[in-house]
Predict the 3D structure of the following.
Amino acid sequence: MNPEKESVKDAAFMADALDLARTALAEGEFPVGCVIADGDNVVARGHRTGTTAGSGNEIDHAEINALRHLSGDMPDGDRSTLTLYCTMEPCLMCFSAIVLSGIVRIVYAYEDVMGGGTGCDRSKLPPLYRDAQLTVISGVLRENSLALFRQFFADSGNPYWADSLLSRYTLNQPLSP
């Protein structure tokens, strides 16, 4: 595929994921959105749930929610053509679930300095994870995602990861003029 065309497509799908992150933020949730696309079509969507009112739910990440929708729509389909777009770098749990799901391309907007899983040294992992063919692209519409996380962490009414490494890092990131 033409890299320029792929870049435009990545930005369009990330914009869709950002809309889901805005929905999560409007619901008081951690602002992460995720879409899974096959070529030119979105085949699954999800956003973060379970962070409001201190519920302590660390399972319902945007990627997991999207993968749940995917499994219902494509139970036995070939997933090697899929790309997962997420407004934040997948954590280790989500990264593992993505690999196990057979998705071979991940595109994310904002880096997770506290729990991101895409940069882990897979050479030391068991073959199931180590041998997975995977492409990871970071920074697509990063500024847009950063703005949502800054809004979330600046709101003292959101206790989720308040005063964490991620919160401090995010609030100290400059926004482009």
The longest strand covers residues 41-47. The chain is about 40% helix and 15% strand.
